[in-house]
Design brief:
Elements lengths: L3 H13 L15 H6 L6 H14 L1 H14 L4 H13 L4 H18 L5 H5 L6 H11 L4 H22 L5 H10 L1 H12 L11 H10 L10
Length: 223
Amino acid sequence: MTTEASSRALIRLMAWLSPAFPVGGFAYSGGLESAVQDGQASDPEALRLWFKTLLARGTWRNDGLLLAEAWRSIDDPTRLADAATLAEALAGSAERHLEIMTVGEAFAAAAAAWPHPALDSLGSRPPYSVALGVAAAAQSIPLEDCLAAFYHALLSQAISAAIRLGVIGQRQGVALLARFEEAIVTTARDTAGSSLEDLGSAAIGADIASLRHETQQTRLFRS
């Protein structure tokens, strides 16, 4: 049964992960721009496999695990600080580090409209996934719901980048969102029941693409 509190929590989550929320995520492609240029994600099916790998075995999954750790650590400042340090240390390239820290900084500043001491304890420039996890826990947003919305937002942002790169059109982008519904729900459920012991990545191609983008001369995105 929907309650006023759950409705408020949903509205807050929608606001934080809306494209209109001032975090500047639209400026980043997570290495996708380099992958498109190199022909690794230059058609709809290759793009689908690219996103599937990020969600199942790549940075998206790891970010979700770090978000979950932050959500659980809201009342433990030391554990929370350790999660933030780990998230920053796991950034595999300079641009990846720039993205998670810059977006995290912007998120923390905007989320100050919903104040909570735990957000203040993170400082002004926390990693994005950690900041979102703390904000969600502070507003009593269920972890699994937050993870599902987070993964959906990452996918939506990546699809938007692919559209701007000319790989797919808007209808194909919507179709991709629809195809990933079950995978997002499953991954969110699995992540909510996991721990930092489950961190790991097998998305080497995506990591290399992120590194290669650092020296790409013509670009639309910052990563």
